[in-house]
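Q: What does the assembly look like in three dimensions?
Context provided by user:
Components: two
Sequences:
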Amino acid sequence: MKQRSDSRFISFVAQFKQNRAALAGATIVLLLVFVTLFAPQLSPHDPIKACLDERLTAPCMEYPFGTDQLGRCIFSRVLYGSRVSLSVGLIVVGIAATIGVVLGIISGYCGGVPDEIIMRLVDAMLAFPSLFLALAIAGILGAGFINVILAITVVEWTRYARVMRGSILSVKENYYVEAAKSLGASDFYIVTRHIVPNAITPIIVVATLGIATVILAAASLGFLGFGVQPPTPEWGMMLNDGRLFMRRAPWLMIFPGLAIMITILAFNLLGDGLRDAWDPRLRERRRER
Amino acid sequence: MLKYIIKRLILLIPILFLVTLISFSLLFIIPGDPAETILTGPGGGADPKAVEEFRIKMGLDKPIYIQYFTWLESILHGNLGYSYQSKRPVIDTILSRFHATLKLAIVSMIISLMISIPLGIISAIKQYSAIDNVSMAGALLGVSMPNFWQGLLLILLFAVTLGWLPVAGYGDHGDLEHMILPAITLGTSSAAITTRLMRSTMLETINQDYIQAARAKGLSERVVIGKHALKNALIPVVTMIGLNFAYLLDGSVVVETIFAWPGIGLLMVESIYLRDYPMIQGCILFVAIIFIFVNLMVDILYTYLDPRIRYETKE
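A: Here is the predicted structure of the complete assembly.
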């Protein structure tokens, strides 16, 4: 058993290494994590300190991305902005995946009434266009970091519940599960030792792609004015600020937008690469869903 | 076929019930007392008497489950409540605003399908060719590009710099020149998704045995692709329309805000700023119901076009 999982891991790494796009995605993600951790060291200026004499300065040596309407360094703000985006992405996916996985396990393993209730709830949640619902929740609760996380988590957990349920249903049919049952293993033991380890892989892929979705949703909320509170730098909010100065200072909206796009692109590339490396058939399964 | 439709309709009942419950429970998360929040002026402080009157008038003094059933009953009569701001029926405002959204959605959908269907088919037929690589890279970029950023860049280029098109607005009746930029923004970003879908569907179709058989029979590649493959590969276009519709509704929030397009997305954002809770609830419920019915139509149409599904669901 041990050896088999090792060889699978090796083939996974080999597959992944061959995928140049996925490697590029992974590199950018690592770079982003680095930027997030070392934003204070990398930033040439204080991202919050206004310097009215330097308002709307075009990109130059001193300010690589120029300055905004309050004379704040956009380069520093973009670097710091990665903190909000990445932390919202990771926290939301962490919570949403946990909720979704637990409900998916209950739904897939127990079947019957619990399955019916959970799946109808998922269907009902999926009936709402996700940004509409997240916006309603974030808008009613008011702007703020925690509220953004709450709002997006509420709409995001469903995908994990669905994927986990489907995965459990297929793993459940295996002979080793039947064998464990015949040996008198408890349900808890079977689920935790046999089913979950074999059913969790798709969740990793969905979670990686999910980070991209969450970052995009968070930036959209920020753009609409329901993100974190100013003056905390956040990419969506920076874009919205930049809108007003589009004619005079287009750099205000070029760089934060670029940052959002590169981040989302990186997680998409990484997620696609993981999916293809783990199991090329997943691509088909995902499409059918 | 009829049996299938009836079955689908019955399945909808619990979902619709849950959808109303979710929309209603948005009231629970309002921080503080809604009546007080609404009536508090910019200077702060609300007249306690006015607050009490407002509460009674809006039914906010009753227990929550009674509020829910009263609300549910009026919804069934087509009444989504009255706006706190304009005091007009919510449904009237929503319907008139939805008209603008629908108009934009249809034009965006046409743009999206006009890009994604040909591009997806060519990419599949010429898999791994330069055109396939370029269009897949484009699709990946399109998926990763936030549509609000794309919208802003389009405004910067075509409205601010070149001055060809208006920056934002609706014109008198949603004129074409006002619609071009928002429709391109929405259409291209949804095309990014559907091109990938079209490509994989087409790939799947041309790898099937009957296509091999058609080739073996000595038919020209033109007939094989144009007549045999395309017929089956185009069925999922129906699903794509449904998928696109969801995507367009979602995108309307941001795109309508940027372009000041007076649709339901902008209405939603405005109502949140104004703390007009019945309007927020109404918008949410309305888009969900629209979305449910679009999906239902898509499923029914799909079953009609691809009878295999009917057999699969029979068991």
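Follow-up: Chain B has two domains: 2-76, 96-305.
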